[in-house]
Amino acid sequence: MSNVYQDVGLTMMITTEDHLTAQQFYAQHQDARKGKQVYLNTLAVRAVERYLNYFGIHADLEKSMSTDVISQHLLDTGALHIPDSGDIECRPVLAHESSVYVPEEVHSDRLGYVAVQLDETLNTAILIGFTKTATHTQIPLKNLESIEALLEIVSKSEVTLSATNYTTHEQVGQVVQLQQWFNQVFEAGWLAAEEFFLTTPLQLAHSFRGSLQENFMPTIPTNGVVGAKLLEQAGKQMALCVGLSPDTKKTGEVNISVELYPVNGNGMLPENVTLTVLDAMGKAVIESQPICDVEYQFSGETGEQFSIQISLGQDEFSFLETFLI
C-alpha cells in the first residue's frame, strides 16, 4: 500500500533496540490490548526522540510518562519529556489510517502532538506532522502542521531545519564515542548512514565518472557501521561520513574511513574545501583538498583519539570534531 504522506514527512528507521524496549514494556501488561497500545506508543516515542537527538535536542526518556509502567497502565500516553520545556505527545498512526487518535486524557499539559505513522512491518516510522493543541480525539492527518513546527516549539535557540550549522572556526565540544556506534548509539547530530540518507531533506548528488546519481549511500563495511553528519555554512552543504570496522588481523584495532560528500545540485564539493585528520597531539596526518568525493582510510587502537577538521578557505569556515576509538 502506497503512503501518501511519505513525501511530506520524515522517515526514521525503527531499530532492534526499539523493538526490544517495546517488548519489555509489553510484557509488563497482562491485557493484550493494553500491551499492544504500549508497544506502538513506545515505537512512536523512540522515533521522535531520535529525530530530536539529530538536531541536538535532548529528550529524557527516563523522566517521560510513557516509560513509567504505572502511567502506561492508567493512561494511553506517548509522552516524551523535554528538560526545561515540557512534554511532547507522540501518537502512533497505522498505515491505513487517515487521522491520528489523541485520547482526551492527554489533551492538556502538552507542548504539542506528533503523528508518527508506522509501516505494516514496523520497520520504519514517518513523522507526518505536528499540532500544538488537540480539541478532538481524531485529528485528520491533512490538518497537521509540518513536523518542522515541532523544532520551533522545543528549541530555545534557532535550529537549522536542514543541517547542523557551525560558526567560523567552531569546535564541537563533545568527543564522539565510536565504540558506541557498533551498538547503533550515536551522539547528537550523528545518524547511522542508512537512516541519515532517509531523513535528510535533501538528496545527495554523487558525482562518479561524470554521471550524477541520486539517493547515494556509502557502502557499509562487513561487521561495521557508518555514521553521517550534515554540515552547512553560508549555503554550502556537505555530508561527513565516518566508517568503522574491526581489523580482523590485529586484535584491538579498528579500520576507519573518512568521506566527505557534496549535498547540492551539481554533485561537487566547494573548490576551497580542505579535509584534515589530526592525531591526539593535533598533528595533521592526512590533509587534502577533495575534488568531488574521496575516501581516506587509516587504523587506530581502542582508546586512541583523532580529530577531523574541515575548512573552507582561511577565514570562511572551519569545523573540528574529536573522536575516541
Could you walk me through the main structural features you see in this protein, from its secondary elements to its overall organization?
The protein is an alpha+beta fold. It folds into two domains: 10-154, PvuII Endonuclease, Chain A (3-Layer(aba) Sandwich); 164-324, no CATH class. Helix content is 17%, strand content 37%. The chain has five helices and 20 strands. The strands form five sheets. Strands 8, 10, 13, 14, 15 and 18 form a six-stranded mixed sheet that branches. Helix 1 (16-26) packs antiparallel against helix 2 (32-54). The model is unreliable at 1-8, 156-172 and 201-215 (pLDDT under 50).
SSE topology sketch:
Layout: E1 10-13, H1 16-26, H2 32-54, H3 69-74, E2 79-82, E3 86-94, E4 99-101, E5 112-118, E6 124-131, E7 138-140, H4 148-154, E8 164-165, E9 170-177, E10 191-192, H5 193-199, E11 206-208, E12 211-213, E13 225-233, E14 236-246, E15 253-262, E16 273-278, E17 284-288, E18 294-301, E19 305-312, E20 317-324
Parallel strand pairs: 3-5, 8-13, 9-20
Antiparallel strand pairs: 1-6, 2-3, 4-7, 5-6, 10-13, 11-12, 13-14, 14-15, 15-18, 16-17, 16-19, 19-20
How much strand content do the residues show?
35-45%
Listing every helix as H and every strand as E from the N terminus to the C terminus, the arrangement reads EHHHEEEEEEHEEEHEEEEEEEEEE
Return Rg in Å: 21 Å
Quick one: how many beta strands? 20
Low-confidence stretches: 1-8, 156-172, 201-215
| Mean pLDDT across all amino acids | 79
What proportion of the residues is helical, as a percent range?
Answer: 10-25%
Output the number of helix runs.
Answer: 5
Structural class by SSE content: alpha+beta
Integer tally of domains: 2
What kind of assembly state do the chains in view correspond to? single chain
The rounded distance between the terminal residues' Cα atoms is 43 Å
Tell me about the largest β-sheet: 6 strands, mixed
**Coarse shape:** elongated
